[in-house]
Amino acid sequence: MVDQAARHELRARNEELRHQIDSMLDAVRRQADSLAQAKSEVERTKGSGTSGNGVVRVCVDAGGNVTAVELSPDAFRRTSPEALASSMAEAARLALADVRERTAQVLAPVFDARADLPTLSELMPDAPRPGDPPPSADEPGWNASILRGADR
Question: Which of 20, 50, 84, 145 has minimal Cβ neighbours within 10 Å of its Cβ?
Fold first, then answer.
């Protein structure tokens, strides 16, 4: 039979764990909401790039798909076909870099929020941490028969 002091300690620990789990769930909900908003914003993100000589401007969507190509009115007089093609490629690369940077800016707060979530090992000190090696079959308390039956 469990004495009153042990029962009280057990209840207090249970309440503490419940509070930690509730806090963690709130943080996960906030992060999920933030991620949904960021996803929507990323889908609307656009980027653009202009060639160094100012002859070509390229616009892209969030997926990097070209949505517009603008040529300066005198593009064909100012440049050769080879140089124009090079300017187009340059502008497209710059547009893609622009949309990637804008996307990273939108997602940065979401990734930063991950730091607020406790790890499993913070909640349960004996839990394995990411990157820990798997337990050895020689470790006390390790039951190797579990693995032998796993392939059935």
Answer: 145
